[in-house]
Amino acid sequence: MQGPILILAEHLRGDIASLTFEMLGIGRKLADDMKVPLHSVIFGKDVAPLASQLGVSDSVFVLNHPQLDMPSSEVVAALLKTLFEQKNVSLVLIGGTNVSTGIGPKLSFRLNLPFVNFCRNIRVKDGLVSFTSQLFGGKILSDVRLQENRGVVSVYPGSFPIDAGKSDRKPSIEMLDLPLEETKVIFKKYLEPEAGDIDITKQDVLVSVGRGIANADNIALVNELADALGGALCASRPVIDQGWLPLSRQVGKSGMTVKPKLYLSLGVSGAPEHVEGMKDSGLIVAINTDPNAPIFGISHYGICADLFDIVPTLIEEIKTHKSE
Ligand SMILES: Cc1cc2nc3c(=O)[nH]c(=O)nc-3n(C[C@H](O)[C@H](O)[C@H](O)COP(=O)(O)OP(=O)(O)OC[C@H]3O[C@@H](n4cnc5c(N)ncnc54)[C@H](O)[C@@H]3O)c2cc1C
């Protein structure tokens, strides 16, 4: 790799995303190993004050523009292409999130350079960088290399430590003045998620239900268990798809990522799309009738049993224990 590494700083509504710090941490290591500079760039409306948080990079490029409040992926990809060429960049790291997801492929196409999607690990050996890309929702991990280490990489959230990307150091800041590409995609307004429901990402105790719950009538039973434990209910996708719990309770790839102190899983098989949303929970306890259910592979404690045999006893025991 001859040229610098460039990180697109992701931010939403005034806050730098934690994934940005993940990218800065791994980007710093990579840049040091490859002996190249680490740059970051932040685009947005009034984003200059956020630049000081990106001190892990050697320099930060800032482009403030009213039209960059929630810009379209085309506009950002065009700006990144210009910067890539102006600064002789070799590698661009972009967040693999709902906010940034469309940017990487468009930039890769415009630069005519390869795109590594769902990147979960980056290593350097003998001057060669290899990237581990997650395929088929985590069923396959593929190690890939880029010719001359040049390309665009979409970093999967939660893959790297956050702390390595934080520093009190003051980076050198360069204000950019680049023209914005015309776009037909205009940001109209930010829709708040449905109000009134609890935020499962903020709970210490979660009781998670899967298809093993069998029908909507049984939700009351597991809700009683969640109440007894002082926690909340969440669920796998089939339970949400059936309408037995609101979308705000879904854990996994297309739902929320949770890290409670206790994750009690009932009748959930442990498909990769579910596991990626809860694997970092403090203590995982799973109840499943199938001894080969993948959820047991990531659980600290597993109970191979019918949840309907265990849950009523558990509620009774917790209530007795509390009244003592
Ligand atoms: C692009 C994509 C995104 C996805 N996103 C998500 C996501 O965000 N979240 C998510 O959860 N899934 C997601 N999925 C779906 C995922 O692949 C699985 O289909 C889903 O997680 C399975 O849910 P489940 O474990 O509840 O059901 P199943 O896989 O049907 O498992 C039910 C489990 O319950 C057990 N069981 C049955 N009866 C009992 C009983 N009485 N007591 C105890 N155990 C019992 C069974 O042994 C089985 O292991 C996604 C899939 C795709 C393709």
Describe the structure.
- With 324 residues, this protein is of the alpha/beta class.
- The protein has two domains: 5-175, HUPs (Rossmann fold, 3-Layer(aba) Sandwich); 200-323, TPP-binding domain (Rossmann fold).
- Helix content is 24%, strand content 26%.
- It contains seven helices and 16 strands.
- It has helices at residues 18-34, 73-86, 103-111, 219-229, 237-241, 272-275, 307-323; strands spanning 5-8, 11-12, 15-16, 38-44, 59-64, 91-95, 115-125, 128-135, 140-145, 151-155, 172-175, 205-209, 232-235, 262-266, 283-288, 301-304.
- Strands 9-8-7-10-6-1-4-5-11 form a nine-stranded mixed beta sheet. Strands 13-12-14-15-16 form a five-stranded parallel beta sheet. A two-stranded antiparallel sheet has the order 2-3.
- Helix 4 (219-229) packs parallel to helix 7.
- It is elongated.
- Flavin-adenine dinucleotide is lined by residues 137, 210-212, 236-238, 250-255, 267-269, 271, 273-274, 277, 287-290, 293, 306-308.
- Flavin-adenine dinucleotide binds at residues 137, 210-212, 236-238, 250-255, 267-269, 271, 273-274, 277, 287-290, 293, 306-308.
SSE layout and pairing:
Blueprint lengths: L4 E4 L2 E2 L2 E2 L1 H17 L3 E7 L14 E6 L8 H14 L4 E5 L7 H9 L3 E11 L2 E8 L4 E6 L5 E5 L16 E4 L29 E5 L9 H11 L2 E4 L1 H5 L20 E5 L5 H4 L7 E6 L12 E4 L2 H17 L1
Parallel strand pairs: 1-4, 1-6, 4-5, 5-11, 6-10, 7-10, 12-13, 12-14, 14-15, 15-16
Antiparallel strand pairs: 2-3, 7-8, 8-9
The site of flavin-adenine dinucleotide has 28 residues, from helix 5, helix 6, strand 15 and helix 7.
